[in-house]
Amino acid sequence: MPPSYRLLTTIVFVLSFFILHMLEGQSTTVNYLTNNTDFPNPERGFYYPTNSDSGLLNSASITALRTPYTPWQATYQVHSTLVFRYYMLTPYVNSAIPSSYLQNMETDFNAIRTGGAKVILRFSYTNTLVGPPYGDASKAQVLDHIQQLASVLSDHADVIAAVQLGFIGTWGEGYYTDHFGDASTAGSLSAADWDDRAEVIAALLAALPANRMIQVRYPQQKQKYEFGNAAPTTSPATGGRIGFHNDCFLATNTDAGTFVNYDPWSAAHATMTTDLRAYKADDSQTVVVGGETCADNTDVIGDEACAIDGGRANTDLALFHYSYLNSDYNNAAVNNQWVGSCMDDIKRKLGYRFAITSGTFTNEAQPGQLVNISLDLENEGYAAPFNPRGIEYILRHTVSGDLYYASPSTDPQQWMPGAAVQLNQSFCLPADLPTGNYELLLHLPDPEPSLYGNPHYSIRLAYLLPGSIDPWESSTGFNNLGHTLEVNNTASEPACDGSTSFGTVSALPVDWLSFRAIAKAKREVELRWETAQEDNNRGFSIERSTDGKVFQEIGWVDSRGSGGGRYQSIDLAPDYAQLLFYRLRQVDWDGRSSYSTTVNVRLQDGEDLVQLFPNPGSAPIYVSAGSDLQAKLFLYDGSGREVWRAIHDFRNGEIELPTALSAGVYFLQVLAGHQFQRLKVVIH
């Protein structure tokens, strides 16, 4: 080799080594250790059951539930961040709920908030199995009560984890009822029974903010609500705002009626069970699921054990994406069997469990330059978070303690069980950022303004820093990432190019009040949302999906200012879609963003189903259809009370609304197969 060539090779080698060494010095990779500890986290785990008949809740007692305790008849310990609350309405089965009862609910919610927990709600009129009569309320009374409860539920939605359908039947579980069809026997519910139940579901959904879910006991009940009375047990998953609770988990092959077809039988029992289990397994990926075990029954003795012991307990918990279980029920018969086998696993995996494996971070930068953050994490739990959840990186000055916030464009509700998640993002440092060293922290707070600063509502991640150091800060709710960023005037990182910036104020979601998607005629979807507060908000990106998983931006609406406001937008749905999902991405002026809840809507095809004339007008008012149509019609007054219903075949001509209606505003709901229309009726 010529000397000149050897010299050139040496220079290239030395230069390459120098560049590589320089690049290595620009970033650091931290490999985290496994943390197998069971610790409390919001909106998941074993819940503590309570009943309003036992008196008001106490905040100190709720706080104490975070410390491990032994449930009734249990041989294991848990800590609870969820309280289940039965509100018994027995005295008011034929009357309005008194204001004193609503005030007691307010007291309970305040105690829950002070105690650092959230509540799962259910309302019931009766807990008797002796009947009929069983003692539950009529549909009209239920709807009136839901309207009464709406303001209390809305005012305290920040501490509501979920609301179970309730109201109907013994324990509010939908069977042994005097008014909604007896679901204690397979094949026993009529089309009218399903319609009545659907009205209660719709009323409860309307009474809650759009970012809160309800739960139903029977998967078929959701199918009927989403797809109409003809819905098969093989209906596709839709996600949305309706989840499931199973109050007889592992009791029988059908979980004591959970997976039973309540239509007249059209297929083998086993087939229906298989269909409904498959439906719930798919649908449960994006909605809240929980429940309680049930006493062992003859057809599955031993099935309630752990999978490794020949049962299906931990298998079904994973299959149906459970977030919570009752800590105080059937311990002697079922739950205690898990001790020494899968109990520790179950305690860790109920709901979400986010474990970070590694992170790569910029070592030093100048003010006004970019820093890069990369995290690898995995959801080791059975489920993803079912309510909105914020995320932000925080830089904390090691001397002054000053905090600077940046929010990555990611949604923890999309971090699915078993999935590897990579967070890779560049952030801009403020040009006036003081020099010095900054700890890097990860914060997953509750986005509700009333809860944001409370560490009890922040998510703790499952990892340990090198040296087995616990990264969790119980006083702040921060997770320390074990990296220090040096900010100086000599670093060589590139200048900012419009990337999301760190700021001195957290810019987590606006204060959402509601978000709705309403199907109109001619494949139009009306989107309505309302906010109470919008600090630093630039506007809203409207996103649409056909499967609830992959979203695309379809529109933009500017913010109306810090005071919040009401918004409306119309989307023309694509011809190929029948079911659509929508969400809003709120975008700050500095580029940070957060998401609303996801809502879904089933579309109408073609023109209006029916027309009203005259409207506004006085009796007689006629309903007509431009095509041969058989439809169900429901008329409600301005308070939501049903005043008339009919089934009409428009091949026989129009139908007349009742002539005795008093003057006022009414709403006519029309159901024809899977098509839906709602019209405002004004009577002079």
CATH architecture of the largest domain: Alpha-Beta Barrel
Question: Sheet with the most strands?
Answer: 8 strands, parallel, barrel
Looking at how many chains there are and whether they match, the oligomeric state comes to single chain
The radius of gyration is 28 Å
How many helices? The count is: 9
Mean pLDDT across every amino acid position: 86
Question: Which regions have little confidence, pLDDT < 50, spanning 5+ residues?
Answer: 1-24
Class computed from helices, strands and strand pairing: alpha/beta
**Number of E-state strands:** 33
- The figure for the number of domains is 4
The rounded distance between the terminal residues' Cα atoms is 104 Å
CATH class of the largest domain: Alpha Beta
Percent in strands: 25-35%
Q: Percent helix among the residues?
A: 10-25%
- Spatial shape: globular
Q: What is CATH's topology name of the largest domain?
A: TIM Barrel
Query: Spatial order of the strands in the main sheet?
Result: 2-3-4-5-6-7-8-9
Give an overview in words.
This protein is α/β, with parallel strands linked by helices. The protein folds into 4 domains: 21-31 and 353-487, Immunoglobulin-like, CATH 2.60.40; 45-349, TIM Barrel, CATH 3.20.20; 511-602, Immunoglobulin-like, CATH 2.60.40.10; 610-683, Immunoglobulin-like, CATH 2.60.40. The chain contains 9 helices and 33 strands. The strands form 7 sheets. It has an 8-stranded parallel barrel with strand order 2-3-4-5-6-7-8-9, surrounded by 4 helices. A hairpin with a 4-residue loop joins strand 19 (511-519) and strand 20. Helix 4 (139-155) packs parallel to helix 5 (191-207). The protein starts with a helix and ends with a strand.
